[in-house]
Amino acid sequence: MTLFGVHIGLQHTTTDELRSVWRRVEDLGFGWISVWDHFYGATGRPDDAQCLEAVAMHAALACTTTKVQCGCLVYSIGYRHPAVLAKAITAIDQLSGGRAHMGIGAGWAVVEYEAYGIPFPAVKPRMDQLEEGIQVLRGLLHDEVTTFEGEHFTLREARNEPRPVQAKLPIWIGGGGEKRTLKIAARYADGWNVPFVTPEQFAHKNAVLDDHCAAVGREPGDVRRAVNVGLAFTEESLQQQFGAIADNVRGGVLSGSDEEIIDRIGQYVEAGADQVNLALRAPFDLESLEKFSAALHLA
C-alpha cells in the first residue's frame, strides 16, 4: 500500500506555526512527516537566511506528533559528523517512541557552506564522504559496536548507547545521481528519495536502482522508494510556492482536478513509488492539503 506523507520546509516560518501544521497533517491522515536540512532559505540568495535548524526541528516533530513516521530528507553529510547525527537520531527515536527515520545526502546548497565557512569539496569527495558516512550511520544505529576506517571518518569500537527504540532504524539516501548516489543507496540504504521528477523520470531512476541492487545482491524490495512532489491546484499557487524555479519543478508538481491528481499519483505508483510526499513550504496552503486528503480518503 502506498504511504502518503508531507515534506515540510523550515524556511520563513516559526516553531509555533510548524507545530500547528504538523498536528493538522497528522489529523488529516498522512502517515509521514519530514523536514529538510538547510541553514538558509531554498531561494539560494545570500541574504535569505530565515531557516530553522533541522536536528532541533526533527526532535520537535517527534515530540509534537504521536502517530506519523518522523523523517528528515535529507541531512547533509558536510554539516555534522555522522556519529553526532547517529546520537541525535537515536534520541529522536526515543522521543518519538520508535518513529524516527534518518536521511542523508551529499549536500548542494553552496551558499550555506560559503556563508558559514564549511568546506564544500568537489562532487567526488562529497560522494566519498556520503558513502563513508552512511556506513558509519549503519554501524552506530544498527550494530552494538562499530569499527570503521575510512579517508574521512574513523571509528574504533564505537558504541551508541542507549540504543534506538527500533532495532533497525531506517536510513535513507536522497538524490537522483545514477552513477554514485543510486549505487550507494542500493548497497547501504533502507530507503531512497528523489524530489520533483516526472513519473517517467522516476521510473527510469527506479530501474537504475534495481540494476544496482542486483549488482550487489540485494532484493529491490529491500530499498523503499519515495518521491517528493509539489501540490498546486492552480498556476497561481505554483508560482506563489516556487517562484523563479516553478518551471524547473513543474513536471514534479501535482495540479489540476481531483481526478487528474489521483491519476498522476497512480503514474508514480506504477513507476515504482512506495511513498508519495507532498513538499510544502511557507506560506503553508493547508486548504489544498485538506482537499488532497479528502480526495484520497486519507482521514
Report on the structure:
The chain has 299 residues and is α/β, with parallel strands linked by helices. It has a single domain, classed as Luciferase-like domain (TIM Barrel, Alpha-Beta Barrel), CATH 3.20.20. 43% of the residues lie in helices and 18% in strands. The strands form two sheets. Strands 1, 2, 3, 4, 5, 8, 9, 10, 11 and 12 form a ten-stranded parallel β-sheet that branches. A two-stranded antiparallel ribbon has the order 6-7. Strand 1 (3-8), helix 1 (15-27) and strand 2 form a beta-alpha-beta unit. Helix 3 (82-96) crosses helix 5.
Keywords:
alpha/beta; ten-stranded parallel beta sheet; 43% helix; globular; 11 helices; 12 strands; 299 residues; TIM Barrel
